[in-house]
Amino acid sequence: MKKRGKINTNKINNTLIIIGIISLLIIILGYSSITGKGVFNFKGKGGPSSQCNDHLDNDKDGKCDFLWNKAYCSDGSIPGDSDCISKDDNDERGSCVPACNNNSDCGTNSYSGDPYCGNDGNVYRDYISYTCENAGKCTSNCNQLTSNLLWENCNGNGCSNGVCLSNGTTSSCADIDADGFDSCSPGELGDDGKIRDCNDGDSKTFPNATEICDSKDNDCDGEIDEGLTCTPDNNTTNDNCIIQITDDSVNQMNPAIYEDKIVWEDYTNSSDPNIFLYDLSTKTKKQITKNPSRQTKPAIYGDKIVWIDERNKQPDIYMYDLSTNTEKLITNNPYYQLDPAIYDNKIVWEDKRNISDDIFMFDLSTNTERRITDNIYVQGSPAIYGDKIVWEDSRGDTTTGYDIYLFDLSTNNEILITNAPMTQKRTDIYGNKIVYEDTRNGEFDIYLYDLATNTEKRITDNPYAQWAAKIYGEKIVYNDIRNGNNDVYIYDLSTNTEKRVTDSQINEVEPDIYEDRIVFRSWRNSHGEIFIYDMSIPGCALYS
């Protein structure tokens, strides 16, 4: 019989100790991965440590708050949430405000600088375009791209000083406006020997011409309307017609007007903007919102004011009723609602709850919400008049870009308004008339579509950018940079005439109009303030 060997108790004890240490490490590792508060930092895919509760994809594995052992943090993240904008994350991420929600928040696409000659002998011009990366998210940011776009094809004749040469010539000198003065200075090849025309696109502007009230340097002496007493009736504005509404040392912006009431967003009393109102009839100012979050982009109709409100972390639509001094939350879901507009009891806005941006409507008379668009494309910047809602829509192909669509609540029919090349966007409506900005000619122009006649009309046709059109009755107001800065212009459909509203040589933007009053934002005092031009003041009528 074989003798049984002795049991090696030391070996067993060592084995038990090792097993105990391994078990303890597993417990520590598990706690670390689930809470993000353990002793060790573990590497995820690619290197950086995963972190809980920061709503970021630290280890670049495509998942938010997702740890190395496939466990999600206990902070509300959900499986597959790659961008941290789920309902749970929205509830946790604090006062995060996106840098941009769409491309138009970053800037207006436009040409910049003068035309110049390219290496291929054609004329080019710089074009600046803006895009919003990660739109509507905490990680959103604006990008600016400058492209060299063909401005004019010289058909093999060559280019000089940004102008195509005529066939068989070697000089770019030309008298385009046929006023007797060409575009070259004495001594240049092909010059006519006369003083250079300072504006060869205007036959009323040339050296020693008669100065007239048109806010231009007609005689090319470097001064505008000198020696004249100009009034609004002959196209140059008068400061007596312009009333300053705000005089605080902080920014005010995005004004809107209805009857005697003007609303805007205002940084007075807060680092984030609130909504204010000024009553022209009583000459009194009132603060509408008084909470520490951002309230922006107000609109007004009658006694009702609507705006974007971020007190619930994500932007919602709120309304204030001046007749009852009560506030109402219009939207209450964990996604973004933007750019409200109001007519009578109907409020419309841009809504992100269905992944793509849709148009929604709320009827105050029935307390019911309705989804107006339900496709996979982006719809935004709505406007409403009566039963008609208009908006910009991205469902067109790459050659057409954004188009303008209309939905008629009385017939439940959707109508494509524009189907032109390039982009049509930022629309407004009054009665049967729809206005919008359009890039089919290169720069932004203002166009109008008349539903009564099913006809389209180009309102502006100069080589500079016009945008942000608003319409009331037969009058359209818009921004224009033809004078080297942002001015406000007005176009009268009844007379087919255009007038310049502001001529202070500084930026004045964001116009809105109601009857004879035009409200706008001005930098006359080195920061944005609210002004109005009142055509009802004697001597201030821009049209008879």
Strand content: 35-45%
Number of beta-strand segments: 33
Rg from C-alpha positions? 31 Å
Judging from the principal axes of the Cα atoms, what is the shape? globular
Oligomer: single chain
- Helix fraction by DSSP (H/I, runs of at least 4): under 10%
Could you give the order of strands across the largest sheet?
6-33-32-31
| Structural class assignment | mainly beta
Q: Mean pLDDT, as a whole number? A: 81
Distance between the terminal alpha carbons, to the nearest Å?
A: 130 Å
Spans with pLDDT under 50 lasting ≥5 residues?
Answer: 30-47, 67-72, 74-80, 85-95, 231-237
Question: Largest beta sheet, briefly?
Answer: 4 strands, antiparallel
Helix count equals: 2
Relevant terms:
mainly beta; 2 helices; 38% strand; 6% helix; single chain; four-stranded antiparallel β-sheet; 544 residues
